[in-house]
Write a structure and sequence with these properties.
Blueprint (H helix, E strand, L loop, with lengths): L5 H24 L3 H5 L9 H20 L31 H20 L12 H24 L21 E4 L2 E5 L15 E5 L2 E4 L5 H9 L11 H9 L8 E4 L2 E6 L2 E4 L11 H10 L7 H9 L54 E3 L28 E4 L16 E3 L8 E2 L3 E3 L7
Helix pairs in contact: 1-5, 3-4, 3-5, 7-8
This protein binds N,N,N-trimethyl-histidine and fe (iii) ion.
Family: Belongs to the EgtB family.
Catalytic activity: gamma-L-glutamyl-L-cysteine + hercynine + O2 = gamma-L-glutamyl-hercynylcysteine S-oxide + H2O
Cofactor: Fe(2+)
Length: 439
């Protein structure tokens, strides 16, 4: 992005802003006003809150901060400040109604296009405008994924439709060795990288094996059938306590069908595709599966090395397949398909070491907590990342079928509470390399 001329960059920003808005409109026009204002789950905001919050963040950063313009609706800042009101409390707030919210986001967007016309855009950080637009594009796309998760929780006839993902094919090997040694983790040069992805720094990683694909529904069903949910040996202490308290018996949205299972996907109840990555499991379920299978979850550094390290050059790539932005041949991103794709569906997206589907399909739970990298600087606000450091979170990497390409990179870091299951998260397994395997 940095090498493009200002006009090309302006066009790129405009295109990304429009793409994000098209998606927000699809997700909010798909349901009636009653479904927009209702809370479909205590875990989620009403969709109409997300919509106006998207507009309010855009107003704060692009209209007021970058543009230096007069506020559009200063009076509603508090209502749409995520730190003022937990999700469960948002339906009771005096929110903009659907027509007002739609009018508000349109008015803000008109002003933003005006600001964009006069912007210099040459820099990577907020002072020089380019980053601020990228941050707001990513923010809208992040909330679009959150709204997609709200749709998954909504009951009633299906309103979202998309073609099935491409077919899978068997992978030649189940796991690959990632060699011992340092690699460059994080980035100091990616224009739209958020504060927690910075700066680039060398990390030493011991040799380890990582699965070439995420754990599938069929593999996960074998864990269930083997009594995995009834045996505390496989669970951490806190994981087992949660498994009992929440009465977990299978991934969220799986429904019993005699001796087997079906799944409810955006209101379509269907057989569970055996070769698709399992989705809607929490961190505790992922860890229990891995322990049962005699494996473990990768750490965040291991995942990023598997995704970026090119053994031929020693360099870290932007994406597993190289430095090009994601195309439809590389990864299942962008809500083009409303489910993960079967294992092997994206051979062009594999990493140099032969690891598939690291980006797209399902977010992958990792056995790491959320901290800043050495040299971390909060930017442009502490509430994006820093206030979450050291909290009760586990890391997630790679994005899902619901994540837009603009909002994910091999350096992109996501986090959530280890009990969360409504997000589009699965996992893959890893293991230590034994001495005799390294000879
Ligand atoms: C980075 C996905 C954890 O959705 O809570 C949206 C992103 N921050 N608005 C979230 C975010 C502020 C954040 N995650
Ligand atoms: Fe937000």
């Amino acid at each position: 992005i940095a090498e493009r001329g200002t006009e090309a960059l302006r066009e790129h920003v405009a295109t990304q802003l429009r793409r994000a808005r098209e998606r927000s409109v699809v997700l909010t026009d798909a349901v009636d006003d009653d479904d927009l204002v209702r809370q479909h789950s205590k875990l989620m905001s009403p969709l109409v809150w997300d919509l106006a919050h998207i507009g309010n963040q855009e107003e704060l950063w692009l209209v007021r901060d970058v543009g230096g313009r007069e506020p559009v609706r200063e009076d509603i800042d508090n209502l749409y400040d995520a730190f003022q009101h937990p999700r469960a409390d948002r339906p009771a707030l005096p929110l903009l109604d659907p027509a007002q919210a739609r009018g508000y986001v349109r008015e803000v967007r008109d002003k933003v296009f005006d600001v964009l016309e006069g912007s210099r855009l040459e820099g990577r950080r907020l002072e020089t405008d380019g980053f601020a637009f990228g941050m707001i594009v990513q923010h809208e796309q992040q909330h679009d994924e959150t709204m997609l998760a709200t749709h998954q929780l909504r009951r009633g006839a299906p309103v979202l439709h998309a073609p099935a993902p491409p077919a899978g094919r068997p992978l030649p090997v189940a796991e690959v060795l990632v060699p011992e040694g340092p690699f460059a983790m994080g980035t100091s040069i990616e224009a739209w990288a958020l504060d927690n992805e910075r700066p680039a720094h060398d990390v030493h990683v011991d040799a380890f094996f990582i699965d070439t694909a995420p754990v599938t529904n069929a593999a996960y069903e074998a864990f269930i059938a083997a009594g995995g949910y009834d045996d505390p040996r496989w669970w951490s202490e806190v994981g087992w306590a949660y498994r009992v308290k929440a009465d977990l018996t299978a991934p969220r949205f799986w429904v019993r069908d005699g001796a087997g299972w079906l799944r409810d996907r955006f209101g379509h109840v269907e057989p569970i595709p055996p070769d698709e990555p399992v989705v809607h499991v929490c961190f505790h379920e992922a860890l229990a599966y891995a322990t049962w299978a005699g494996r473990r979850l990768p750490t965040e550094a291991e995942w990023e090395k598997a995704a970026r390290f090119d053994p031929a050059t020693g360099r870290s790539r932007r994406f597993p397949w190289g430095d090009e932005d994601p195309g439809p041949e590389h990864a299942n991103l962008g809500q083009r398909h409303l489910s993960p794709a079967p294992v092997g569906a994206y051979p062009a997206g594999a990493s140099p070491l032969g690891v598939h589907q690291l980006v797209g399909d399902v977010w992958e739970w990792l056995d790491s907590d959320f901290h800043g990298y050495p040299g971390f600087e909060a930017f442009p606000y502490r509430e994006y990342s820093e206030v979450f450091f050291g909290g009760d979170y586990k890391m997630l990497r790679g994005g899902s079928f619901g994540t837009d390409p603009a909002a994910v990179r091999a350096t992109f870091r996501n986090w959530d509470h280890p009990i969360r299951r409504q997000i589009f998260a699965g996992f893959r397994c890893a293991r230590d390399a034994r001495a005799e395997e390294l000879a």
